[in-house]
Design brief:
Length: 357
């Protein structure tokens, strides 16, 4: 029998125990917290979709707004998206307004005295459409000086197979925004140099596992067919030709194939959709038994998705955590000492504690 305890304490924090998982509310009323990155163990930099960056002190729970944030196109699914701290630079993805249309854009800046300085746009992607959907976008880094970030198909399915647009792709750049010479399409006049993989619908989670040198992405399918993919250089992941998802308006599958040897298969498919919006591979720093496990936020089904892989990279177990929390989990991150934090579309940030006996 599962027992759920709820403790109410007289402070700004609320704590609830859900199965063997405890969550502590760290902050609230923040809007849609899309991105989170640690400056150090006690300082968490966050983005709000509406176009705001704030610094959260995890000890004092105080929030300081960051100045000189770029103006973002906040319409539909567009807005200020991911944020990552790397080598003293703050990297951002956001949607830039170009003649009333939105383009997923990568930029970086330095943080000094609670203000962004030395701001530079690294790539204003070629992904403009009249839609306000499927912008991606997450950022991750490998150990060789490369940055990866994702862009959705912008709601135009054909973009997934079009190498002349950045939409529907995962891109790879050097940290300064230049194109690596060994990118898969640099010598292809019919493709954009920044593209690393294509055939994606809307990848809103991407993470590089440095220990195993593997790059993972998680993306939204249509009605069913969300995917976790192992990302391989130059590969085509099939969208919209291959999908296990169905149309929104009838029971037909999207695309000609459910699987096809010419396209990369997902290592995990979700049907029904969970609507994933983040992904990490856990390091094992604090919870040794969780080392190498995948965690993803679920928007539609409102839980923290937990995936266990075997030593061959195959999914052997899935768990749905924090279902009783009832929140759309937008992002999941790991702190420098191995704590796991999540953010929700309700404007909350929680610390997640796993109670192992």
């Amino acid at each position: 029998m599962r027992i759920v305890f709820l403790f109410i304490i007289t402070s700004i924090l609320s704590i609830s125990v859900i199965a063997n998982t405890k969550v502590t509310k760290i902050s609230s009323n923040l809007g849609v917290v899309w991105g989170m990155t640690f400056l150090d163990e006690n300082n968490l930099l966050i983005t709000q979709k509406k176009g705001k960056i704030s610094l959260l002190d995890l000890e004092s729970k105080t929030i300081t707004d960051i100045k000189n944030v770029p103006k973002v196109f906040n319409k539909g699914q567009a807005g200020l998206l991911d944020i990552q701290n790397k080598n003293g630079w703050i990297y951002l993805t956001y949607v830039k307004n170009i003649r009333g249309k939105g383009s997923t854009t990568l930029a970086r800046a330095k943080l000094k005295e609670n203000s962004l300085i030395n701001f530079e746009e690294l790539l204003v992607s070629r992904s403009l459409t009249s839609t306000t959907a499927h912008f991606g976008s997450r950022i991750t880094f490998d150990e060789s000086g490369h940055l990866y970030f994702s862009i959705g198909d912008r709601g135009v399915r054909e973009n997934g197979q079009d190498l002349k647009t950045h939409a529907g792709s995962i891109l790879r750049l050097n940290l300064d925004g230049t194109v690596p010479k060994d990118n898969p399409f640099v010598n292809d006049s019919k493709a954009l140099n920044e593209i690393y993989t294509y055939g994606h619908r809307n990848p809103q989670g991407i993470f590089y596992d440095k220990e195993n040198k593997k790059l993972y992405a998680i993306e939204h399918g249509p009605r069913g067919g969300d995917e976790i993919n192992l990302i391989k250089k130059g590969s085509n992941y099939g969208w919209p030709i291959v999908s296990k998802g169905k149309e929104y308006w009838n029971t037909s599958y999207v695309g000609k194939y459910r699987t096809n040897k010419e396209y990369k298969d997902a290592i995990k498919v979700y049907t029904p959709s969970i609507a994933p919006s983040s992904l990490i591979v856990y390091s094992g720093k604090k919870y040794k038994s969780l080392k190498g496990n995948l965690f993803a936020g679920a928007l539609k089904l409102r839980h923290l998705n937990h995936i266990v892989l075997n030593n061959k990279g195959k999914v052997i177990k899935e768990s749905k955590l924090l279902e009783s929390l009832g929140e759309r989990i937008r992002n999941v991150v790991e702190s420098p000492n191995g704590d796991i934090y999540i953010s929700t579309d309700s404007g909350n940030i929680y610390l997640v504690d796993f109670n192992f006996k």
